[in-house]
Design a protein that fits this description.
Chain A: It is found in: Cell membrane. The complex is a heterodimer. Chain A is mainly alpha-helical. Chain A has twelve helices and no strands. Chain A folds into two domains: 68 residues, no CATH class; 209 residues, Orthogonal Bundle (MetI-like fold). Chain B folds into two domains: 164 residues, no CATH class; 243 residues, MetI-like (MetI-like fold, Orthogonal Bundle). The model of chain B has no long low-confidence stretch (mean pLDDT 86). Classes of the chains: A mainly alpha, B mainly alpha.
Chain lengths: 293, 429
């Protein structure tokens, strides 16, 4: 915080009040930012530190004292099903990511570049269908899973995640493709490039940032989801991390907060790193893609 | 060349293929007739039956599974809708091709030409087919099934195949709106859903805009540092944060009661605060949930608004300063209008997101504490009530489906109105 320490001697009162004004402005600005930063870091730090605490920790508070240990991480993989939950989440999330990115990129490209009968109609269909709160159709998914013998199977859950993410992400992708100048396609066409070549080697490299963002989004939605996974996965060894972690703390009599914290770190850390790595692409991508985020 | 009658071609295509024959496109005509015959055959060997079963929902319990009949019936409805779309497209095609012929344009006659046409113009359809299949499977089909289910008596007393389901008309809706027990639950849950959505989202937006405006000032040092911290709540998966907060707000062992209030009482002993019942008093749970959603949700708004702010040209502010505008005037006349012009759709999606924010409600305190009847806890919103209606000890599936329909109509209706108003529908070709 700089204040008016270096004030010259013969300043008139008007300058003085401007300086004072500036000082208070800077003071309150930094005050706001520091307080907000503390409010954000405090709970995060509590969870982080608790992960290294002894199993008989009394309260879930910020406390740097006491013995630090890695025993919780070991216990996580030896005494609980955390390892399988992690693996399950990875299988579902990565399949969702790969398939959704391919489907969405193709569809977004088509809607950006081609004119065809029914285009306007189907784009409106995409907008309306993305508003449907699909997770509310719980019972229908349940009955469908029963009929297809898909209860407790990953493919069913994955297909729901992919299908649910398609409308809004296609819409985003189309918006980003729209920003790639059409002249590029035209000149490539004059040079004799085919449909596929234009798509693969001219346009696609230019939308790589958006594809990265899409991949993160598609990867994250299964990780984040609790409702569907809890509902459609019935055996404990098939749970995802979100559903599994909750079992550590949902029993008020026997809360295992240290195990929960250790498990939380292992899932949050890699995701947060990926997030910050891709973060610079978000704003341009989301604002260019229009309405939806 | 003889003129083709476009109207006549279209009328002939009421039976798919005939119009195409009239236009001289024999191969296409044959293909279309094959599709027609396939549809008729499908109807004859199962389709009609599926429709009939959909109407009766079965007559012999243990033998007829009403649910499966409903699903096959829905599938049949979808197939029929697809055929109707094809049928309309076919009539349009006949008219369109006739007009092309009249204008002396070339149309495809042979198999090879048709194939080439498909690869060129049909490329578009081909590439979007996977998207459609997945959306129909994951969205359209379940929503249709839910729609039908809302008009049956599917509940814990009627579980197929042991029991048959019956159509009950609007009974689920009328009992929700007029039957005293369900009505009071619905009113309580719906009321809190609205309050929750409005308060939490508005809080998010206010903190987001304030932080963006404050942190975007030129003189600030350490912008990158603060930028990373302000994004943390978005970068960490929400379920992890919510579960952590559920520990932090624990009545007896949580950091808020033990540490924060403890610290306050040491620093400001004359204004003593007693520990708060965050988890056991409905009012305080609601307060906590709204505050936590502000924490979780503001970074997204903050990032978007920062992007918008940086796009506002600097000279706009300079010109305003020269004209003697105060800081507040500049904020009200330049900053806010720009933000709302661009970010309105983003705000709306945040409201609809929170309207259905199951994780926040359920993972914090499982919709509790308290009880407002029909399985719903004191902080349950509609979506978590649906979850409880479906997973409780005496499930009320059809009632849950009815609530789902109400939610969908509300969310879609409001979004449509706002998107229409903000012109988000205008799409360039």
């Amino acid at each position: 915080m700089e204040n008016a320490t270096a004030a010259p001697k013969n300043v008139n009162s008007k300058q003085n009040s401007a300086r004072r004004h500036r000082f208070w402005k800077e003071f309150f600005t930094y005050l706001y930012m520091v307080v907000l930063a503390i409010i954000i870091i405090y709970p995060v730090l509590i969870t982080f530190i608790t992960a290294f605490k002894d199993a008989n920790v009394q309260a879930f508070v910020l406390d740097f004292g006491g013995k630090w240990t890695l025993a919780n991480f070991k216990a996580l993989f030896t005494t609980t099903l955390y390892g399988s939950w992690y693996l399950n989440t990875m299988i579902i999330s990565i399949s969702c990511m790969v398939i959704q990115v391919i489907v969405v990129t193709l569809a977004g490209y088509v809607y950006s570049r081609y004119r065809f009968a029914g285009k306007k109609f189907s784009l409106t269909f995409f907008i309306v269908i993305q508003m449907v709160p699909t997770m509310a159709a719980l019972t229908a998914y349940y009955v469908l899973a029963n009929m297809l013998n898909a209860l407790d199977h990953y493919w069913f859950l994955t297909a729901i995640y992919i299908g649910g993410g398609i409308p809004q992400n296609t819409w985003l992708m189309k918006g980003y493709f729209d920003n790639v100048p059409y002249d590029l396609d035209e000149s490539a066409k004059l040079d004799g490039a085919g449909n596929f070549k234009i798509f693969w080697s001219i346009v696609l490299p230019l939308v790589k940032p958006m594809i990265a963002v899409q991949a993160l989004w598609a990867f994250m939605s299964p990780v984040q989801d609790y409702l569907m996974a809890k509902f459609l996965l019935t055996s404990e060894s098939h749970y995802t991390v979100a559903v599994g972690l909750q079992t550590f703390i949902n029993n008020a009599q026997n809360q295992q907060v240290v195990l929960f914290s250790a498990g939380a770190i292992l899932v949050a850390l890699p995701i947060a790193c990926l997030f910050f790595y891709l973060q610079r692409f978000f704003v341009s991508g989301l604002l260019a893609g229009g309405s939806k985020g | 060349m003889q003129k083709k009658d476009a109207k006549k071609a279209q009328r002939l295509s009421i039976i798919p293929g005939l119009g195409q024959f009239y236009n001289g496109q024999t191969i296409k005509g044959v293909l279309f007739i094959i599709i027609l015959l396939a549809f008729i055959a499908q109807l004859a060997f199962g389709g009609i039956n599926a429709f009939a079963n959909l109407v009766t929902l079965g007559s012999v319990s243990m033998q007829d599974n009403s649910l499966f009949m409903m699903i096959y019936g829905t599938l049949q409805i979808l197939i029929t809708i697809l055929f109707i779309i094809f049928w309309i497209a076919n009539m349009y095609d006949a008219k369109h091709v006739a007009q092309l012929l009249n204008n002396g344009k070339k149309v495809s006659h042979t198999f090879k030409e048709l194939g080439a046409n498909l690869v060129g113009g049909g490329f578009a359809y081909l590439l979007t087919i996977p998207a459609y299949i997945l959306m129909i499977f994951a969205i359209v089909f379940p929503v249709l099934v839910t729609l039908l289910m809302a008009f049956t008596n599917y509940d814990f007393a009627h579980i197929p195949p042991a029991m048959l389901l019956d159509w009950v008309g609007f009974k689920n809706f009328t009992s929700m709106f007029f039957l005293s027990g369900y009505r009071s639950t619905f009113n309580a849950v719906f009321g809190w859903t609205v309050i929750w959505t409005v308060c939490a989202t508005t809080l998010q937006i206010i903190i987001g805009i304030a932080t963006a405006v404050i942190a975007n000032q030129n003189f600030i040092k350490g912008k990158r540092f603060f930028g990373v911290i302000f994004l943390l709540p978005w970068a960490i998966p929400a379920f992890v944060s919510i579960m952590s907060f559920s520990n932090i707000f624990n009545d007896s062992a949580g950091a808020i009661n033990v540490q924060v209030i403890g610290l306050w009482n040491t620093l400001v002993p004359f204004a003593h605060i007693a520990p708060i019942h965050w988890m056991t008093d409905t009012f305080w749970t609601k307060v906590a949930i709204i505050m936590i959603q502000g924490w979780l949700g503001f970074p997204y708004i903050y990032v978007m608004i920062t992007g918008i702010l940086q796009a506002i040209p600097e000279d706009l502010y300079e010109a305003a300063t020269l004209d003697g505008a105060t800081v507040m005037q500049k904020f009200n006349r330049i900053t806010l209008p720009t933000i709302f012009a661009i970010a309105a759709p983003i705000f709306v999606t945040q409201y609809t997101f929170n309207f259905n924010n199951f994780s926040m409600i359920y993972l914090f305190n499982q919709g509790g504490p308290g009880d407002v009847g029909a399985n719903a806890g004191g902080t349950d919103i509609l979506i978590s009530w649906i979850y409880k209606l479906t997973t409780g000890t005496s499930p009320q599936y059809s009632l849950a489906a009815a609530v789902t329909l109400i939610i969908s109509v509300l969310v879609i209706g409001i979004s449509l109105i706002v998107f229409k108003k903000t012109h988000a529908f205008e799409m360039g070709d």
